[in-house]
Please model this.
Amino acid sequence: MTTKVSEQAISEETIGQFRASLVSMDRSIDNAARVDLLRALEELKASCAGAQALLAADLDAFTRKDRGERGVPRSYQGRGINAQIALARRESAWFGTQHLNLARALNDEMPHTLRLLVRGSISEHQATILMRETACLTVQDRAALDREFCCDAAILDGCGTHQLTERIRARTAEIDADSVARRARKAVRDRRVTSRPAPGTMCWLNVLLPAAAGTVVYATLGRDADSVLAGGDERTRAQIMADLLVERVTGIGRATPTPVTVNLIVSDQSLLGDGSDPAHVHGYGPVPAAIAREWITLSGEDSETMTTVRKLYARPDTGALTAMESTARTFPKGLARLIELRDRSCRTPWCDAPVRHRDHIRDHSRGGLTSAANGAGLCAACNYAKQGSDWSAEPVPGTRHTFTTTTPTGHRYSSEAPPLPTPWAGPDAA
Model:
């Protein structure tokens, strides 16, 4: 055991020395050398991704084996492994799951793809496409396709991601048309609408639809936008398509304000005065104070627009929200809302997923209180991971809500609540 730790320490030291050499590399070279270095570093990135896949597959296999020997039920042996990988890679649990799926497929079923990735001949994204597009095949058919496309790096040389996807999909359909058809029918159940912030106080609205429906929606908006343009409208075609989508989904024309409920975290100076401290709109993110005031003013001027503004204030001395506590095991509605608005998104480091669960940091079974101090907003994946074997978490006293999570390998990660708009402390404040 001591030898393994020593080897790991040497490996980390070697990698650290190489990273340091990149920081201080000689940049007084000609352009040809710069291009060569760009290619070499890109191949190195791919090789590192391949090495990570090998390590992730080993972590998965050895963790399951250890838990099995300790009597952990088979259905629980893999719980939390994806979260450990995500934390190590500084990304969300969703991406940790994707990387673990890639690692398993490459290590167990796609040796040729794995070899090209470790050699730096293909990128992690290309390897993911190969894994994803062959997932519906049997192990034997996937192995055959892996050998066909990746036995030689020259086969995929110069192949872009779109071209690669089309080639793999076409070949997969030839090998097993029935599996591809079943996959397509199953994928219909994944249709959904999501949103995420965009620059300039805008929002990306993403819709995942079956190809036929999505194509019809887009073509219809484009056709009708062309008709509006022909009538002399000064908007661009893209603007008209966006406005038509809003009008048809909400049933409200451009001249009519849209009913909205705003969960707004804002300082009193930004809301009532001329403060510049940004507000935070739950489900979107920070918005300029001036924009927040405009939204509230406009909603107040139109009696037909129903706008609910929930304002949360921070304490002037600590910047923390007022604590709440309950004797119930589940978080009451008001306390759950406070936690959700305080945390904004999943509190696991590097996870930006929406809050779905209000979790006891210290488990209720271990005496953890149902309180704001012992509560954290987590996404479902991170909450389930935390229930795995040998995970623990503890609140950390301080001015801003903080807790630490300890993984089964003993690694500790700290999570601090995002800063809140600071209220006016009064004329006597220092």
